[in-house]
Write a structure and sequence with these properties.
Elements (H helix, E strand, L loop, with lengths): L1 E3 L2 E3 L3 H23 L3 H14 L5 E7 L5 E7 L5 H9 L5 H8 L4 E4 L1 H4 L6 H4 L3 E9 L2 E10 L1 H4 L2 H36 L3 E6 L5 E7 L1 H5 L3 H5 L5 H4 L2 H16 L4 E11 L5 E11 L8 E8 L1 H23 L3 E6 L3 E5 L1 H7 L19 H16 L4 E8 L5 E10 L9 E7 L1 H57 L5 H31 L8 E4 H18 L3 E6 L6 E4 L1 H17 L5 E11 L4 E9 L6 H4 L23 H11 L3 E7 L3 E12 L4 H4 L11 E5 L3 H13 L3 E5 L2 H14 L6 E5 L7 H10 L7 E6 L4 H8 L5 E6 L4 H12 L28 E5 L3 H13 L3 E5 L2 H8 L6 E4 L8 H9 L11 E6 L4 H9 L4 E4 L4 H11 L4
Parallel strand pairs: 19-21, 25-26, 25-27, 27-28, 28-29, 30-31, 30-32, 32-33, 33-34
Antiparallel strand pairs: 1-2, 3-4, 3-7, 5-6, 6-7, 8-9, 8-12, 10-11, 11-12, 13-14, 13-17, 15-16, 16-17, 18-20, 20-24, 21-22, 22-24, 23-24
Helix pairs in contact: 1-2, 1-8, 16-17, 16-28, 17-21, 18-19, 19-21, 29-30
Length: 983
């Protein structure tokens, strides 16, 4: 062995033996390269041969792509340490040996671990061995590196390096061929799957097809065999309009004296199904020898979709161009920052130029009023363009003549990352709008001032009406209250008549005051709607009670009813519903001389959110002429407005009713016939209280379910109303309109034996027979016993009938018309249990507070606070008649003094008083640090301030309730019963 610098020239027997080992290894590796098609198995096998046959300590290969990224590795002799190297390579890191091998011009790089392998994950394994690394390169392509670790004596042997270099060359060529075959495979695969077809033609008169491949059948509908056999001529597939041009062009180029020519053409073909397709034809015409016929190689692509898209694009472009040119909004395109490139005529018109061409090349600085505006605009808005934000701003631009014009600007960048690529601006002339806005702003300021004045006027009017109401109600309280007290004294017939007239006139005046206040509140928008739970049937009963006396005085039949499918438990504003219906029923009674007035509730519509009810009031009154119906709900309007009119009134009632109905989201209307009668209706939306209808219906009393009852009534509507009530309790109900029919039904039921009538309800209003006569007839019919009877009567006739029926063997109970559902149920339960209620001359109200003579509540004390002596006299008289002990105070100061030494069960508090009003007095009473003894005493306002806002204010100051003056005996009694129930 001879040393030559660091290289060793080997000529010993060991060298000959080494040559033999290398040759054997190379033969095995070459066989592997030739036979193995799997790239991973190939490089793994080479690493194995280098380790086993050549005695290298280890070997590893890393293959890279065009971007020098490692995509495959193999190793042998490194064991579990190579995965560390693999992860190192996959992260993009490369050891020094790999970097030097790729960058070094020499194919082989020999490294010394002591100096060259400090950053290599495998350096700790080398232990003094050398590393030999080479690029795997073929021509200009690098496919990776191969690295081996071996002893120094082998590494520096010149022949060993030559052997390793040959191995690297063979492996590089194999990798090149593998890449080439893969590329060819992929190309063939792509071509076979594409929409392209390939032809080889012979340049003759028929252009016969010698070779065909690709999507022939998919494109043309014919198979490859059809073309190769000549059965189908490609020439005939070309569209007749394109055929001569296409093949003439080919013939001209083929006849030219050129060895090679290239044609790209687009034309139409007609496929087997008759469809017209566009083809992109890439053809190479090549002549191998002079004077020989040329051969053609063609690649044909289907570009039908592209052509359709191009056509649509052209159409859209033309359409957009038309929109651009004819748009009534200015459009401007900027290029190169802020330089005008293009615009439409509308833009030129807005800015005062003859045409947009006149503006080309203009810097946008000239469109701003001055340099300061230009800089400010850029700072505010060009950042938005860079953020790809489309924004709109109102801004003044400068016309050609220098005058300003208000414009609406909207900008959008074509490329937010580089505004020089272009910005589109949409510009609209808003000069006229700005002028209108300016005028409108001035007008609004004037209107605002006028509105303030109007609000002040409305408040003054409201305060004036409130004060007038208070001043009128205060004396009226004395008039009506004292009249009420007078009626409870010993009076002769004429005196009772006079006092009734005085009381009626006072109530009429009070109604007028209420209507004026209501209308004033509605007009000023002061009405607020409540949302509260209420019982529809109870509400209808209360309305009927209110107007029953008026109906009775005129001899009218008053009734109310609800359809079976109407829910009873609703959510809404019961006070306003009551006000609407009371107005309608009051008018019906007022304009009806004989016959009846009825109230009905029916279901208009319903859904999950709300239920709409139709509330109807019918009468048999004078009716309304058709031409007067349209103006009926206007304010201060009546059908007969002459001074000779029979019926009085302000004409505000229906106007208020209409306004309230609209506020509640409903509608109102009327149908009428002159001298026949009228029907007024309102539709109002409500919510149904939570729970199913079955849960909210009146609980069916066990005692009434299945009870057989007979209704003997002459009035069909009243009969239907009672029937509806009793049907809810699942009673077995029959009806008769006269005594004979009723007796027949009673006898038939009694003779049946098992199903007699248990109770009969009789209306004591038969002209041919009175109640005593009917009961006498029933007593004589022994077969109908046992029988219980409920007599429907007027309140003033009950005592008289009681005396005449005391000796009767039939159990009789009385009910006052119109019948209330709660009282009917209670009466039926009682009479069926054989428990007669003890009646007194005071009537049926068992909950009424007893008089002082009755000695029920002798200890109940009430403090009455009012500055009016008349009011103190009226209220004191009423309270003493109810059995209360009463003390009085003239104002709030006096009341506080009294309350420091005495306690009371309840205080009736006036509001408007000198020295200390009712609000301040209440606040002092509720103040825990004030000297009064009872801070929680019940306080009820008794005042002429009757507005809803007055009521709310009372509650806010700590009062428990609110009563309006003048207050009637029954109303005051009901309020006291509510707060001071009988012990």
């Amino acid at each position: 062995m001879k040393k030559d610098g660091k290289r060793i020239i080997c000529n010993s027997d060991r060298h000959l033996q080494r040559n033999q080992e290398v040759l054997e290894a190379f033969r095995a590796i070459n066989r592997l390269i030739i036979e193995e098609t799997d790239l991973n198995k190939l490089i793994s096998g080479i690493c194995k041969y280098l380790k086993i046959h050549l005695g290298y300590h280890n070997a590893w290969i890393a293959l890279t792509d065009n971007h020098d990224h490692v995509y495959m590795t193999a190793s042998h002799g490194l064991g579990d340490d190579f995965p560390i190297m693999k992860r190192y390579l996959e992260k993009g890191s490369r050891p020094d040996c790999l970097n030097k091998a790729i960058k070094n011009n020499k194919d082989i790089f020999l490294s010394n671990p002591k100096t060259d392998c400090g950053n290599c994950p495998l350096s700790r394994l080398y232990k003094g061995r050398y590393g030999m690394t080479s690029r795997l390169r073929y021509k200009d392509e690098i496919y990776g590196i191969i690295s081996v670790s071996l002893t120094p004596d082998i590494a520096i042997c010149e022949h060993e390096v030559d052997y390793f270099s040959e191995l690297c060359n063979d492996l590089s060529f194999a990798l090149h061929k593998h890449h080439e075959s893969k590329t060819l495979y992929l190309a063939n695969e792509i071509f076979s799957r594409s929409q392209a077809a390939a032809f080889v033609w012979k340049n003759n008169s028929e252009w016969a097809v010698e070779y065909a491949a690709g999507s022939i059948e998919r494109l043309f509908g014919w198979t490859i065999k059809d073309f190769l056999s000549g059965r189908i001529s490609y020439r005939n597939l070309v569209h007749p309009e394109d055929r001569e041009r296409v093949f003439r062009k080919r013939a001209d180029i083929a006849e030219a004296d050129k060895n090679r020519a290239f044609i790209e053409d687009e034309y139409r073909i007609v496929n087997r199904n008759g469809e017209i397709l566009w083809i992109n034809d890439l053809t190479t015409i090549q002549r191998e020898e002079p004077n020989e016929n040329s051969a053609c190689q063609s690649i044909l692509h289907d570009i039908t979709i592209r052509k359709k898209t191009e056509k649509q694009l052209l159409e859209k472009t033309a359409e957009f161009e038309g929109i651009f040119r004819n748009s009534q909004i200015g459009i401007m395109a900027l290029k190169g920052g802020r330089i005008f490139a293009r615009g439409n005529q509308r833009l030129a018109d807005i800015l005062g130029y003859g045409s947009p061409d006149e503006m080309v090349g203009m810097n946008m600085r000239s469109l701003h009023l001055n340099e300061k505006h230009f800089i400010s605009f850029g700072k505010k808005h060009y950042e938005k363009l860079r953020d790809n934000e489309q924004f709109q701003v109102e801004y003044r631009l400068r016309r050609k003549d220098g005058t300003p014009v208000w414009c609406s600007l909207s900008g959008k960048a074509l490329n937010p990352e580089n505004l020089d690529d272009g910005v589109i601006w949409i510009i609209d002339d808003i000069e006229n709008r700005k002028q209108i806005e300016k005028k409108l702003l001035e007008t609004n300021k004037k209107l605002e001032k006028a509105s303030v004045r109007a609000d002040a006027a409305n408040k003054a009017k409201s305060d004036f009406l409130s004060n007038i109401s208070h001043e009128i109600r205060t004396p009226l309280n004395g008039v009506i209250g004292m009249t009420d007290m007078l009626q409870h004294t010993e009076l002769d017939k004429e005196q009772k008549h006079f006092t009734a007239i005085v009381k009626s006139c006072g109530k009429s005046l009070m109604k007028l005051v209420d209507e004026l206040l209501d209308y004033s509140r509605i007009e000023a928008g002061k009405i607020t709607l409540e949302s509260a739970d209420f019982n529809l049937v109870a509400l209808l009963e209360n309305i009927a009670d209110r107007v029953a006396l008026k109906a009775k005085e005129k001899g009218l039949e008053l009734s109310y009813s609800t359809d079976e499918n109407v829910p009873h438990y609703l959510v809404g504003d019961p006070d306003r519903v009551c006000q609407i219906l009371t107005n309608l029923v009051g008018n019906a009674i007022k304009f009806t001389e004989k016959g009846s007035v009825s109230i009905n509730a029916s279901l208009e519509s319903e859904n999950k959110k709300q239920t709409v009810l139709r509330l109807t009031v019918r009468d048999t009154g004078i009716g309304i002429a058709e031409d007067a119906l349209n103006a009926l709900f206007d304010r201060f309007t009546q059908e007969d407005e002459s001074i000779k009119r029979k019926y009085g009134g302000t004409g505000l009632g229906l106007a208020i009713t209409k306004q309230l109905t609209r506020l509640m989201g409903g509608n109102i209307g009327a149908d009428s016939q002159k001298n026949i009668g009228s029907e007024f209706w309102v539709t109002l939306p409500f919510k149904v209280q939570k729970g199913t209808r079955e849960e909210k219906k009146d609980t069916i009393p066990h005692k009434l379910s299945g009870v057989k009852a007979l209704l003997l009534m002459k009035n069909e509507r009243s009969s239907q109303n009672l029937y509806s009530m009793m049907h809810l309790w699942k009673m077995n109900i029959f009806r008769a309109l006269n005594t004979e029919t009723a007796l027949t039904m009673l006898r038939d039921a009694a003779s049946d034996g098992n199903d007699p009538f248990q109770v009969i309800l009789i209306d004591n209003d038969f002209p041919e027979q009175n109640a005593t006569d009917i009961i006498s007839v029933l007593e004589a019919e022994k077969t109908v016993h046992p029988l219980r009877l409920v007599l429907l009567d007027e309140a003033d006739k009950q005592d008289e009938n009681d005396k005449s029926l005391k000796s009767s063997s039939i159990i009789v109970e009385h009910l006052q018309r119109p019948v209330r559902m709660k009282e009917l149920k209670k009466t039926l339960e009682h009479i069926l249990e054989h428990r007669l209620r003890e009646r007194t001359s005071a009537g049926h109200d068992e909950d009424r507070i007893q008089t002082h003579d009755g000695n029920e509540n002798p200890a109940r004390k009430i403090l009455l606070v009012d500055d009016s002596k008349t009011n103190l006299m009226v209220a004191s008289h009423m309270l003493k008649k109810m059995g209360f002990l009463v003390e009085t105070a003239e104002d709030g100061v006096k009341a506080i003094d009294i309350l420091q030494s005495s306690t009371y069960d309840l205080i009736l508090m006036d509001l408007q008083m000198p020295n200390m009003d009712g609000y301040e007095c209440t606040r002092e009473i509720r103040n825990p640090s004030s000297p009064v003894l009872d801070h929680n005493v019940i306080i009820v306002a008794l005042t002429a301030h009757s507005r809803e806002e007055d009521r709310q204010k009372c509650l806010e100051y700590g009062m428990n309730d609110h009563l309006s003056k003048p207050v009637e005996f029954e109303v005051l009694q009901a309020a006291l019963t509510k707060h001071l129930p009988v012990l």
